[in-house]
Amino acid sequence: MPVEPKTRGRIAARLAKAATRQLDLAVQALSPPADDRSIHQARRAFKRLRAMVRLLREPLGDEAARLNTEFRDAGRALAGSRDAAVLRDNLSRFIKSGDDMPVDQALEVHPIRPTPDTQAIARRLLEARPQLAAWEQLPLTGRRVRQAYARSHRSARRAMKQALVTEDAERWHTWRKRVKDLLYQTQVLRPKAPARRRYARLAEWLGEINDLTVLDAALAGTPHAGPARQRAAERRQRVQRRARKLGRKLLGRRAVRRVRKRGG
After folding, report:
1. CATH of the domain at 205
2. How far apart are CA 165 and CA 40, in angstroms?
3. N or C: where does the chain have the smaller number of CB atoms within 10 Å of the terminal CB?
4. CB neighbour burial string for 47-67, b if at least 16 within 10 angstroms, e if fewer
């Protein structure tokens, strides 16, 4: 069942508070010593910020593109070390003790990348804080926010439809990003809605599918990697079946009609 955003009260102030809180969490996570866990927390905060920027794309105007680029670039700067750590975890997960390719050998091929200068990233982020705090003055109405939320729902549905007709990894990854937008916007607009848990589960499954696709690409052409790739492929197929079923339930035609009706 789709979620209707709760927009009573000062919605602009609520969004401003949520955005500055996410930025503060990212800055705190990037304070030394930054490790894989804190870098993951910072990247997740950037994704939440970008989801809020997309929600406010129209009232923010040109500032939306600038903020989106800033948070996107900050996330990309942290992606290398985090993605390498996830890859290493999956190598350990799918390479078994009886394989001809030991985990140690695979880890030598895919070493952890050096941690970026997290303090420099944090300093740049702080420059955006006044802009986020100024969202409190945006001329927002409940109707306008509901319309923006409905657009996010439609975007997630379009991405799902494009992903489900193909095995193209990029389309599945795009679907994941649009579902995460919807999840993060729901967490801000209707934090107690039961459906947010289903969005979170769908996003988690789509994230695992992406990680397994990255793992398969990393092992392609690697000697003796066949058994590990087969295990990962079987797992990916199982998770894809779950994602298809849940995605159709959350983003199906009936859900879109209901969101459109409520969004105006």
Report:
1. 1.40.20.10
2. 31
3. C
4. bbbbbbbbbbeebbeebbeeb
Counting the structural domains of the chain, the total is: 1
- 106 pLDDT band, cuts 50/70/90, is low
- For residue 69, tell me if it sits in a domain: yes
The model carries a pTM of 0.86
The string of pLDDT tens digits covering residues 41-73 is: 999 999 999 999 999 999 999 999 999 999 999
User: Phi then psi for 25, rounded to 5 degrees?
Assistant: -65, -40
The neighbour count for residue 106, using CB atoms within 10 Å, is 23
Q: 127: pLDDT confidence band, cut at 50, 70 and 90? A: very high
Q: How far is C-alpha 2 from the chain's CA centre?
A: 19
> Which amino acid is residue 147, in one-letter code?
Q
Does 25 fall in a domain?
yes
What are 215-255's pLDDT values in tens digits?
A: 888 888 777 788 889 999 999 999 999 999 999 999 987 66
- In terms of Cα–Cα distance, which of 133, 226, 142 is closest to 189? 142
Question: DSSP letter string over 202-252?
Answer: HHHHHHHHHHHHHHHHHHTT-TT-HHHHHHHHHHHHHHHHHHHHHHHHHHS
* Alpha carbons 155 and 157: distance in angstroms, whole number: 5
Instruction: Give me the domain span that covers residue 36.
Output: 11-263
